[in-house]
């Protein structure tokens, strides 16, 4: 018989059993915590749906940028310098095939006539200048003759070109400068040409490139408009445009490049309504869609100025080739 307060050996051996249950409970608690933790991590892993919602606005923005754009001055998105050079040169090659005979559209027989005609072409068309200069050069064939001319008589001849008083002052002034400083000869250096009254870098490069065969870029209104549409440069100052575009091409290409761009601007890529649907370089143009994209309607927008009425319509570029596939001379050319 066991004494009160004492446990038998068998009971003593059984008593620790409750203590063994504690680790099991702990394991269950740990497992519960793990399950809770797993639930939390699973909840965290389910977070991607909000991320997809955050990406959506970016896709919408990209869609807006991909739509046909107006003329902008930002570079083509993600276009490297190398890609820009290649695209610009390819555009020039394509235009050279469309306008293989591109040339200055001012009529001239010598450097003096060219520099005068180029000064007169400001704020008017080459066609109007070509209609005016024959009478001017017939009466004043040399710089000495024009330097000694009566301003009122010159003004009367130049009246159709607009701004005739200012132009009269310029052509008489440059004629005097040629007579007094250069022996009656047009100089063949840029630094000398820009000293003449009414002659800036644009006029100087026209003379250098077409009268002396020295490369130069002519940055007129057409050239400025197109190189910005094509995103060759974001510059707006003519001198900076000249430098930026010149850096994309070999110097030997500069003069012909100027002709190609200017011809394209006058005939196809107009300021107000470009003929995008009839443009031979449409796949290379970031501003495609700014003008008419329907091919039939776009062809009606093509223009051909020389030898006809201002704004005269023309046929597609292939019409410039003769029966043998060779470049045909410009309409009205002698």
From TrEMBL:
Cofactor note: Binds 1 [4Fe-4S] cluster.
UniProt entry tagged with the keyword DNA repair: yes
Binding site for [4Fe-4S] cluster: 269, 276, 279, 285
NCBIfam families linked: nth (TIGR01083)
The protein, known as: Endonuclease III
Catalytic activity annotation: 2'-deoxyribonucleotide-(2'-deoxyribose 5'-phosphate)-2'-deoxyribonucleotide-DNA = a 3'-end 2'-deoxyribonucleotide-(2,3-dehydro-2,3-deoxyribose 5'-phosphate)-DNA + a 5'-end 5'-phospho-2'-deoxyribonucleoside-DNA + H(+)
Enzyme Commission number: 4.2.99.18
Gene3D superfamilies cross-referenced by the UniProt entry: Helix-hairpin-Helix base-excision DNA repair enzymes (C-terminal), Hypothetical protein, domain 2
Pfam families: EndIII_4Fe-2S (PF10576), HHH (PF00633), HhH-GPD (PF00730)
Gene Ontology molecular function: any one: endonuclease activity
Start-end of Low complexity biased regions: 7-59
PANTHER family attached to this UniProt entry: A/G-SPECIFIC ADENINE GLYCOSYLASE/ENDONUCLEASE III, ENDONUCLEASE III
Keywords of this entry: 4Fe-4S, DNA damage, DNA repair, DNA-binding, Endonuclease, Glycosidase, Hydrolase, Iron, Iron-sulfur, Lyase, Metal-binding, Nuclease
């Amino acid at each position: 018989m066991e004494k009160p307060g004492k446990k038998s050996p068998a009971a003593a051996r059984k008593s620790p059993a409750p203590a063994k249950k504690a680790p099991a409970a702990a394991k269950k608690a740990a497992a519960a915590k793990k399950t809770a933790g797993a639930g939390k991590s699973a909840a965290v892993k389910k977070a991607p749906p909000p991320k997809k919602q955050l990406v959506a606005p970016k896709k919408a923005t990209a869609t807006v940028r991909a739509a046909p754009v107006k003329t902008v001055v930002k570079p083509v998105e993600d276009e490297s310098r190398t890609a820009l050079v290649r695209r610009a040169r390819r555009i020039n090659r394509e235009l050279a095939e469309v306008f293989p005979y591109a040339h200055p559209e001012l009529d001239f027989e010598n450097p003096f006539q060219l520099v005068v005609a180029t000064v007169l072409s400001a704020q008017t068309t080459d066609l109007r200048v070509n209609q005016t200069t024959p009478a001017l050069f017939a009466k004043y064939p040399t710089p000495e003759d024009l330097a000694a001319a009566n301003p009122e008589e010159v003004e009367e001849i130049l009246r159709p070109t607009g701004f005739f008083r200012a132009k009269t002052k310029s052509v008489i002034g440059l004629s005097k400068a040629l007579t007094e400083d250069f022996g009656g000869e047009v100089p063949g250096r840029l630094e000398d040409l820009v000293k003449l009254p009414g002659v800036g870098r644009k006029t100087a490069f026209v003379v250098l490139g077409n009268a002396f065969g020295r490369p130069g870029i002519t940055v007129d209104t057409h050239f400025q408009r197109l190189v910005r549409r094509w995103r060759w440069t974001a510059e707006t100052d003519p001198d900076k445009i000249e430098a930026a575009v010149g850096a994309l091409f070999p110097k030997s290409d500069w003069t012909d490049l100027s002709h190609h761009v200017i011809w394209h601007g006058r005939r196809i890529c107009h300021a107000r309504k470009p003929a995008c649907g009839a443009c031979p370089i449409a796949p290379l143009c970031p501003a495609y869609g700014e003008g008419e994209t329907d091919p039939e309607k776009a062809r009606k927008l093509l223009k051909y100025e020389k030898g006809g009425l201002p704004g005269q319509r023309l046929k597609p570029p292939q019409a410039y080739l003769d029966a043998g596939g060779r470049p045909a001379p410009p309409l009205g050319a002698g």
